[in-house]
């Protein structure tokens, strides 16, 4: 217990020192999101407007980890998760001002800097679509076709230059829309019933069975 309180005291000093740094750095965000339990905690907190009892968080995390309903989680499973959160994860998240823990009320809330975490979620998640190469291919094809159209050689001569230009603008717009939807609606913590990684696993399992 002394060790836990010591970490909390350090975190409060750290928050004062970081008062002029409203956003998480890439390394801080990666550190928080690299652990599944911390991602689960953030997902729960982002779903709620108010703080949440630690016991409730531990039960839900244990349920997600074991693939059970919350009602089926045993006291042993809940206590194992709760102990890990208290001794390691919550102090670590407090240290960079992502969450706030009230030991008297045993409630956990999202700190101001915690709102920045979803921006970095794609850093530690694997995208189904390799967006970098997609943008590169679309851009390369666009430049190539427009150049051939401007000098009057195939395939640029198949349709007028202006038509090619409109087609590629629409293509880039479509790719950007799909990418934005995936990042900001499917991969954001707190926007789906379960964490994004569990939703993805469920979708993949459903696709295998159909």
Automatic annotation (TrEMBL):
Name of this protein: DUF7344 domain-containing protein
Keywords on record: Membrane, Transmembrane, Transmembrane helix
Q: Which residues cross the membrane?
A: 134-153, 159-178
Keyword flag Lipid metabolism: no
The UniProt record lists the DUF7344 domain at 30-108
Q: Which Gene3D superfamilies match?
A: Winged helix-like DNA-binding domain superfamily/Winged helix DNA-binding domain (1.10.10.10)
**A Pfam family this chain is assigned to:** DUF7344
């Amino acid at each position: 217990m002394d060790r836990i309180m010591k970490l909390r005291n350090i975190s409060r000093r750290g928050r004062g020192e970081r008062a002029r740094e409203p956003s998480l750095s890439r390394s801080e965000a990666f550190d928080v999101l690299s652990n599944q339990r911390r991602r689960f905690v953030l997902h729960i907190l982002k779903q709620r407007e108010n703080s949440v009892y630690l016991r409730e968080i531990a039960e839900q995390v244990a349920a997600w980890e074991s693939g059970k309903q919350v009602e089926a989680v045993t006291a042993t499973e809940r206590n194992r998760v709760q102990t890990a959160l208290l001794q390691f994860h919550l102090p670590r998240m407090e240290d960079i001002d992502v969450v706030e823990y009230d030991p008297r009320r045993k409630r956990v809330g999202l700190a101001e800097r915690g709102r920045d975490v979803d921006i970095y979620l794609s850093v530690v998640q694997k995208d189904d679509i390799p967006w970098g190469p997609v943008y590169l291919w679309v851009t390369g094809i666009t430049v190539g076709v427009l150049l051939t159209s401007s000098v009057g050689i195939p395939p640029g001569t198949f349709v007028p230059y202006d038509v090619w230009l409109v087609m590629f603008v629409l293509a880039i717009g479509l790719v950007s829309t799909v990418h934005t939807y995936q990042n900001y609606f499917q991969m954001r913590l707190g926007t789906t019933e379960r964490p994004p990684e569990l939703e993805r696993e469920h979708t993949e399992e459903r696709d295998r069975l159909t």
